[in-house]
Amino acid sequence: MSTSDTFAIAAHLHVLLRRKTGRVTDTEWMATNSDYAREIIRFAREKATTEELAELVPWVDKLEAAIPEMETPRSKTLFEAAAEALRNASSGEGNRYVGRLR
Fold first, then answer.
1. Contact 67, 52 (CB under 8 A)
2. pLDDT digits (tens, 9 = 90+) for 39-82
């Protein structure tokens, strides 16, 4: 499952939880942090049972299926690689004007 799919699932679940239970969640954190996702899954399943909100169940199942993807190490994005390269380049002696006033 792609990252954008996981974000879409988290966003849909966020909207449902907000409308049906009043619970506000962090969509980005839900899509990237497996511990947070598990807690939201637990909460949503509890609400689906106690308040008879069956429409939550398919989205909770999809989020649960995405958890293994969250736990696998991912490669750096182009932005992250460029930022790291700039940090490494600016720390060298050859670049004495980078990051300082002249």
1. no
2. 999 999 999 999 999 999 999 999 999 998 877 766 677 777 88
Q: Is 33 domain-assigned?
A: yes
Secondary structure of residue 73 in the 3-state scheme: coil
Opening angle at CA 48, ends 43 and 53, nearest 5: 135
Write the CB contacts of 57 (distance below 8 Å, at least 6 apart in sequence).
45, 48
Whether residue 94 is contained in a domain is answered as: no
Put simply, whether the predicted model's pTM sits higher than 0.85 gets the answer no
Query: What is the rounded distance in angstroms from the CA atom of residue 77 to the CA atom of residue 83?
Result: 10
- d(C-alpha 92, C-alpha 32), whole Å: 33
Split into its structural domains, the chain has a count of 1
Is residue 1 very low, low, confident or very high in pLDDT (cuts 50, 70, 90)?
Answer: confident
